[in-house]
Amino acid sequence: MTRLAGRVAIVTGAGRGIGVAYAKALAAEGAKIAVCDVLDPNNTVNIIRQQGGEALGFRTDVTDPKAVKAMVEGTVVAFGKVDIMVNNAALFADLSSRSFLDIPSDEWDRVMTINTRGVFECARAVVPDMRKRRYGKIINIASGTVFKGSTGKMHYVASKGAVVAMTRVMARELGPDNICVNSVAPGMTMSEGVADKEEYINSRTPSTRCFPRHEQPDDLTGAVVFLASGESDFMTGQCMVVDGGAAMH
User: Fold this and answer.
1) What is the pLDDT of residues 132-167, one digit of tens each?
2) pLDDT at 93 over 90
């Protein structure tokens, strides 16, 4: 399929987990992919290349503005432009569930820095190139927990609530440049780093859904591809909840 033929996409946090699924899906639709992660991105790059796509990798900390700028510039040098930014990098799977009263202050700050400032740094780094061509798609990954008030990881929920708010501000500020900014809110997804943890395997979350099963990474790729494609060119500032009907937003 070629819905994204000629497009160039950056996917952060694509070294493992759901980010791999996003990168593969965008590549399958014809986009050239820059895989960004603080982990080694080469496995994802190789998967895309083996499937006939074009990809390159950057080992990048999304909270480091110089590193993010270099990653975007490297993508432009290699592929000529950036059309799509998927802000997926975030802390979640490695966080312990606990009352907000017991969350260490330094852990709160780390979650906020990665999950919110990382989105800020990456979005502002790609805007100049998108503005040159008066076109772009920024897709921020939020979470269905924002709409459910899920307990146990308040810093994570708060950070994803900020992502929804940031998306709305970006949409208004970038609308005159014909840049679409939307967010996707997944439910708890059985991705790498989650699927092997008893906390998530035995979670009651599936029973709260209209579709009473565990969510898989591929359940999310259709929404991301849609928001990256021309089919959503008149849609901005929105949050698409993709969680099997647990949170009806």
Assistant:
1) 999 999 999 999 999 999 999 999 999 999 999 999
2) no
Enter the pTM of the model. Answer: 0.96
Question: Helices 118-133 & 154-174, crossing angle to 10 degrees?
Answer: 20
Tell me which of 22, 135, 156, 200 is the catalytic residue.
156
Q: Are strands 136-141 and 84-87 parallel, antiparallel or unpaired?
A: parallel
**Type of residue at 51:** Q
Tokens of 5: 């033929």
Q: Which CATH class is domain 8-241?
A: alpha beta
Which tokens go with 9?
A: 């996409």
**Three-state secondary structure readout of the chain:** CCCCCCCEEEEECCCCCHHHHHHHHHHHCCCEEEEEECCCCHHHHHHHHHCCCCEEEEECCCCCHHHHHHHHHHHHHHHCCCCEEEECCCCCCCCCCCCHHHCCHHHHHHHHHHHHHHHHHHHHHHHHHHHHHCCEEEEEECCCHHHHCCCCCHHHHHHHHHHHHHHHHHHHHHHHHCEEEEEEEECCECCCCCCCCHHHHCCCHHHHCCCCCCECCHHHHHHHHHHHCHHHCCCCCCEEEECCCCCCC
Our answer to whether residue 22 is catalytic in this structure is no
